Amino acid sequence: MPQTLEFDAAVDTGRARSNNEDAVAFDADAALAVLADGMGGYNAGEVASQMATSFVCGELGRWLRESAADATDHEVRRAMDICVDNANRAIFNAANSNPQYAGMGTTLVVAVFRPGHLLVGHIGDSRAYRLRGGRLQQLTRDHSLLQEQLDAGLITPEQAIFSSNRNLVTRAVGVEDTVLLETHEHELHPGDCYLLCSDGLSDMLDDDAIAQLMRANASLAGASRALIDAANNAGGKDNISVVLVRAGGADAAAQGRSWWPFRR
After folding, report:
1. Can you give the pLDDT at residue 255?
2. What is the edge-to-edge ordering of all strands in the sheet holding 127-132?
3. What is the DSSP letter of 29?
4. Which of 77, 171, 255, 262 is 20 to 30 A from 237, alpha carbon to alpha carbon?
């Protein structure tokens, strides 16, 4: 029986913002999930995040549905790079041809699920996590000034919680004419649950709180709602977006969401 995948996604404006600059998308048939957190004045951040998720989910999803069954991981990584580069150039060109969009950009997290493993690509400080056996692990490492300070030993994790540099990213889609997608591979086990999220969630809740809420909710929709509610209850200082993907669970099998046919 093919591996099954179950998807859910949710976005919330939060309690401090009047507009939403986060965007999420997934393509169950292509085994693809995408999340973006936009930045820029007026509604430019919203434009950037929507462009990024639309381009990547549309172009990469189409390619995966047509080619993934026979493609190598190298070819999938190449397709991810090309689609992200196309999105980056589209956002960069829009920002430079429309004064109201000047300076816009967005973070990005892309997850492509393959037989037995997945490829995660990211830019900026939106994150990917994995819950396995009740233990939560962060799979991505933020492209941010704060992370660089932590890596250099300039501040402690405790000091980082109160840092004024929490939202300064060192890499973003659409800000320059080129951008590097950091991509890595992870094993995929039945029962794994993967979370993509914006910093509107990870800044409000620590890893223990996120893990507890994911463990406490059997349904992905329930977990998505619980995560967003908890982030809002903690202050809701930013837009909150989540994408959850569960591999091989009974709920996913019952819904009949299976992977594309693949050859071993």
Report:
1. 39
2. 5-12, 240-247, 193-197, 127-132, 135-138
3. T
4. 171
